[in-house]
Design brief:
Largest sheet: 11 strands, mixed
Number of helices: 8
CATH class of the largest domain: Mainly Beta
Distance between the termini: 41 Å
Length: 423
């Protein structure tokens, strides 16, 4: 008996030491992970393919349209310094070349605990890491091609959503021709991580104008989450909603092995990592083609959508838009943005248990405003809900044990010595 106690104690001690070593190893990995520079840079030295893999719609019927503007780039007369936009939940940089989002910082989420002056940076374009959101117009009268991006102008270089204001609009203008003016408008709302990206086309020419909107997330294969002692890592990769699957996720290796292309009405395409995601969300009533692929010559991945051609008659105006989300995996928010986007909060195969528990925990937290207390109260509530089934199970187990004991006693009685039975 003494040896059994000693063996159990040794096994428990070894298990505890292994557990503590796992925790310390994880902390060591996190502390010694190579630091990534947060200094945003221009990508002017990149190759054509690395600058942007603009969708090719030249095979569409619109390619034969007679009115096709020149593709020569405008002279670099405008300053190409960043356009900075700040709201209460977003701090972003926009590149005038293409009007792309090249950096997104989240002021309400800190890169390090208790350091509000260091917001978490989700998107960025540095000398060691690329994660940007690009968009444009392609096709017969498009402004974007594989070797040319438009240079937009802005009346200011800094925009701030003031306290008390609900919306901020940032207009980037581009004169495509003497008779065609294009405005790329970014609209921001207070407290929202969803950005409305809208193209306003003014066609004062005597010919029809036509182009197709595309949105794209461009990212390298960098994984910001160090592997744990057991080799476990949060998922980092792409996800989308298809006609066959409401939620399909693909790792970088999956995309490198086999690119994905599919069409869907509405839908979305996202880049997912631990706690955060970015996603392009076209209008729900539009039919879009989605593509996920890896560059042939670089460690760069593209998650993009292209919509249907937008036509603007001579002497009229038109517009086309899509939403871009960049922020935390907030289930309630993602549910409102697009169907099944909330599934990026991946509960795995136990989602049918985990999701109701989350809603219960979130509901309790809305009253007590303390996550620790909410967890305790949820635990008590679960105990109360399962008290009667557990009590009933214990009663049945006790009755079964008593019946088993009685049966065992009866069997022993049958096997008594004959002299005891017949005396």
């Amino acid at each position: 008996m003494k040896m059994d106690w000693l063996r159990t104690s040794l096994i428990g001690g070894i298990a505890l030491v292994c557990f503590l070593l796992m925790i310390r190893w994880g902390e060591f990995q996190e502390r010694n992970q190579p630091a990534i520079s947060q200094t945003t840079i221009h990508n002017s030295s990149a190759t054509v393919e690395e600058i942007s893999d603009v969708p090719d719609v030249s095979s569409s019927p619109s390619a034969s349209d007679s009115y096709i503007p020149g593709t020569e780039e405008p002279e670099e007369t405008a300053s190409t310094q960043w356009i900075r936009v700040k709201t209460d939940v977003l701090d972003i940089l926009i590149d005038p070349r293409g009007g792309d989002i090249v950096k997104v910082a989240l002021p309400t989420f800190y890169a390090q605990l208790n350091k509000p002056d260091m917001p978490f940076v989700l998107l960025n374009q540095t000398d060691a890491h690329t994660y940007v959101a690009t968009s444009g117009l392609v096709g017969a009268n498009g402004t974007d091609s594989k070797d040319s991006r438009p240079l937009f102008n802005s009346v200011k270089r800094n925009y701030t959503l003031a306290d008390g204001e609900e919306q901020l609009q940032v207009d980037l203008t581009y004169e495509q021709s003497p008779d065609v003016a294009i405005t790329k408008r970014y609209s921001f709302n207070a407290g929202s991580h969803l950005i409305d990206v809208r193209y306003l086309i003014s066609n004062n020419s005597d010919k029809p104008w036509q182009a197709t909107l595309y949105g794209q997330i461009k990212r390298d294969g960098y994984n910001p989450n160090p592997a744990s002692f057991m080799g476990m890592q949060p998922f980092v990769g792409a996800s989308t909603s298809t006609n066959e699957k409401n939620y399909l996720k693909l790792s970088f290796d999956d995309i490198a092995d086999e690119p994905l292309t599919h069409k869907k009405e509405g839908g979305w395409v996202a880049m997912v990592q631990h706690y955060f995601l970015s996603a392009w969300v076209p209008p729900p009533d539009s039919v879009n083609e989605y593509r996920m692929f890896k560059s042939k010559n670089a460690d760069m991945y593209y998650f993009q959508f292209t919509g249907q051609p937008t036509r603007v008659a001579p002497g009229t105006k038109g517009e086309v838009a899509a939403g871009f989300y960049s922020g935390p995996k907030d289930i309630k928010t993602l549910e409102k943005i697009s169907p099944y986007l909330d599934l990026t909060v991946d509960y795995s195969f136990l989602w049918w248990i985990a999701k109701p528990l989350f809603y219960a925990l979130d509901g309790i937290h809305s009253f007590v405003n303390n996550w620790g207390v909410a967890i305790i109260l949820l635990t008590v509530l679960i105990k109360i809900l399962f008290f009667y089934p557990l009590r009933r199970q214990l009663q049945i187990h006790g009755q079964n044990a008593q019946s088993a004991a009685q049966n065992a006693g009866a069997e022993r009685a049958l096997w008594r010595r004959p002299s005891e039975i017949f005396r």
